[in-house]
């Protein structure tokens, strides 16, 4: 090799390499589509979702393809839908009970100025024939002359019939007496009459406390109107009457005792009366009772009540089925009903005396004038 001879550089023929090409030279453009193609109706892959749904609906609605059973089902659903639309346009007074909606019940409570507070509250009463009370009590109510339920009666009675405690806030003359009497008498009449006669020495099934003698007498009159028709004995224990005479009547046996706190405590301390089977405690006009200084007497009266019928601190006390079953038995849980015209801290303190469980639910009703 000639060392003096120089290496010649490679010639590129004077041309520069071109990396781009003409679109017309791309033969794979239509073979492998990387982008979504739009065609037909203008949607992806030519599929119109709305048109598909419409076609599917048309397919199932085709009378030729529907069986006789499917046709009857469709007609029935259409009838129910039209019926529901017509019901929604009617006032709650024009509807049967089974067609009432939540909106109807809300309007119902607004019409009667009923305000509620608490857990699962049962539906209020629209009329006496929808109350679900025993037939003998229903007849007694009509015979006494009770017409339409008052607002406090409409909501308090269904809750009382569920074996639940109640605090009712209502004005005087709003029908409170009947509101607590109907559930009370419903329970007593459910007990065998023979057992009621055999257990008369154990004391009454219920006590009703009133702040004054006059109010106790009024409650006695109203209670006897219905109680005598049901063969239920009632006695008022008030001042101004002989304790010996009252003791004699108590020994003969009474199911319901109406009393002022002071006189009832005196009778209990002198052994004229026992409360061994008392499962119903009612306080009427509790605010006046506190104003008259009866709070200490009420606390002492509670000590005479049996502990065996207190509601257990379990979830069973919130189970409606268990409460209803217990309500229809002799071993009924103690039930407390309190009515007041005002809801003051003193009333709340008194209400806590009757609490039987940590999750006890109280109900509030207000019927403003």
TrEMBL record:
Work out whether the entry's keyword set contains Ribosomal protein.
no
Instruction: Report the enzyme's class at the first EC level.
Output: hydrolase
Gene Ontology MF: a single term: ATP binding
The alphabetized UniProt keywords are: ATP-binding, Helicase, Hydrolase, mRNA processing, mRNA splicing, Nucleotide-binding, Nucleus
Q: Which GO terms describe its biological process?
A: mRNA processing; RNA splicing
> By its UniProt entry, which Pfam families does this protein fall under?
DDX23 (PF25430), DEAD (PF00270)
Q: Which GO terms describe its cellular component?
A: nucleus
All copies of domain Helicase ATP-binding, residue ranges:
157-354
Entries under InterPro entries matching the protein: DEAD/DEAH_box_helicase_dom, Helicase_ATP-bd, P-loop_NTPase, PRP28/DDX23-like_helical, RNA-helicase_DEAD-box_CS, RNA_helicase_DEAD_Q_motif
Q: Where is this region: Disordered?
A: 58-77
The chain positions of domain DEAD-box RNA helicase Q read 126-154
Localization of this protein: Nucleus
User: What's the main place this protein lives?
Assistant: nucleus
Where are the compositionally biased (Basic and acidic residues) regions? 59-77
Question: What catalytic reaction does the record list?
Answer: ATP + H2O = ADP + phosphate + H(+)
Segments carrying motif Q motif: 126-154
Enzyme Commission number(s): 3.6.4.13
Cross-referenced PANTHER family, in alphabetical order?
Answer: ATP-DEPENDENT RNA HELICASE DBP3
Family to which the UniProt record says this protein belongs: Belongs to the DEAD box helicase family. DDX23/PRP28 subfamily.
The identity of this protein, by name, is: RNA helicase
This protein's species is Mesorhabditis spiculigera
